[in-house]
Write a structure and sequence with these properties.
The chain is α/β, with parallel strands linked by helices and about 450 residues long. The protein has four domains: about 120 residues, Response regulator (Rossmann fold); about 90 residues, Arc Repressor Mutant, subunit A, CATH 1.10.10; about 110 residues, Rossmann fold (3-Layer(aba) Sandwich); about 90 residues, Winged helix-like DNA-binding domain superfamily/Winged helix DNA-binding domain (Arc Repressor Mutant, subunit A, Orthogonal Bundle). Helices cover about 40% and strands about 20% of the residues. The protein contains 15 helices and 24 strands. The strands form seven sheets. It has a five-stranded parallel sheet, sandwiched between helices. A five-stranded parallel sheet has the order 15-14-16-17-18, with helices on both faces. Strand 8 and strand 9 form a beta hairpin. Helix 5 packs parallel to helix 11. The protein is globular. About 0% of the residues have low confidence.
Length: about 450
Amino acid sequence: MRILIVEDEITLNRTLLEGLLDEGYQVDSVESYKDAEYFIDIRNYDLVITDWMLPDGNGVDFTKIVKNRNSRTSVILMSARDDKESEIKALEVGADDYIKKPFDFDNLLARIETRLRFGGSTTIDIDKLSINPDEEKIIYDGNEVELKGKPFEVLTHLARHRDQIVSKEQLLDAIWEEPELVTPNVIEVAINQIRQKMDKPLNIATIETIRRRGYRFCYSVLEEVSVSDKVLFVKTKNDSDDTLVKNLQEKNYSVDVVNLENIKMENIKNYALMITDLLETDNDTFDFIENIKKTSNRTSIVIITSKDDSRMEISSLKVGVDDYIQNVYDQDIILARIEARLRFGGLNTIEIDKLSINPDEEKIIYDGNEVELKGKPFEVLTHLARHRDQIVSKEQLLDAIWEEPELVTPNVIEVAINQIRQKMDKPLNIATIETIRRRGYRFCYPSAEEAK
C-alpha cells in the first residue's frame, strides 16, 4: 500500500515517514503543496496524509484535488486547529478523517489502517471473481486460481483502480520497491502471466491494453450491492441519542432505532451505517463489531461514547470500527463525521428531483427509465452534478476526468456536452448543463419550471 505524506514541519515529516516505512508501507513524503500536486499526478496512492497549513497552499484544497483525481484514495487531514468549524469543513470537502495535533503515532497508525481497510484493502468481489490481497488468493466461480507474486499485485492494483487507465510507470511505482532498478517490460511479463494463467484457461478477459497509455481492468460484469441511505442506531441511555437521530432525519437519512437485544444480524447488510456505544465489556464490544463485519463488511460502524480511552479507541479501530467519536464533541462535528463515513461508504448515487445518477454502476435513471449515456459524457455529467453549485471550466473537467489531459484538446469537452444534450436532454425535454460563456459549464437541473 502506498502513502503520500504532505507535511512542511521537517521533524514531524521524518517521524511519520520512518514510522510508516517501519510498518511496511511504501511511502513518499513532500513538504510543499506544489510537490504534493506533482506526486499525486504521477502516482496512484491508497492514502494521503496532509497538513492543513502548507507554505504554498493548504490541505483543504489539496484534499479536493486528491478526491477529484480518485475518489477511492483516502485522505487524513492533520491540523493544530481545535475549532469545530475546521473539522467540519475538512470532512465536508472530502477528507475521510481529521486528526488534531499533537497526536499519538499509534492512534494515527490505527486510523490509517482503518481507512486503508475500508478504502479497498479487503477482498475485491466482482461478479464471479474474488481477489483477496491479504491472503494473496484469487477465487473464480468457487475455484482457486494459481496466480502469485508480481502478477497478482498487478491484477490487484488494476482491479482497485478499475475506473482508470494505469500507466506502466504508475504500476512500477505502486508495486516495485525500487522501480528505477527494473525495466518497464516486467509489466508486460506480469500482464502476460495473468492472461496465460488466468484469462485463457477461464475464457475471460481481465486487463485491456490501452495503446501508448497503459492498462485498464476490464472484467466488466460487476456485481455491485447498492448501499442505501439507511442508518441503524443502536439505542443507548445517552440523552443526546434523540438529538442525533433527529439531526440525521433532517438530513433525509432513514434511521431505524433498535435496542441491542433486538438486532437481527441478517438485516445488517441493508444499512449503510450503524451507530453504537461501547458495550459493557471490551470483549463484548469487540465480539459485536467482528460479528457485524462478518455479516456485512460494507456497513460502516461508528462508535459514539463518553469514554476517553485512547487504548480502547485504537483497539476498536483495529477490529473494524470505521470511526470512534467522543460524544463530548459538538453535535455538528458528530454529524459531519457520520456524513463523511456515509459518503465514503458508498452513498455515491446523486438524486435530484426525477434524476438519479449512479457512478458505481455507470447508470442514469430519469423518471423511472434508464438513460443510455456511458463513458466520458457520463463522467462529465457526474462531475458537474457533484459540483452543481459551481461553474466548472474546461480545464478543470479535463484534469478531473482525463488521465492525461495534456494529450487531449479542450474540444473533447464540447463533444461530451453535445452527447449529453443529444442523447439525454433533447429526448427527455430537459436541460442539465448550462454553458457559461468564457468560463465553463454549470449543472442546471432542475430548472425552475422543471422543479414545479
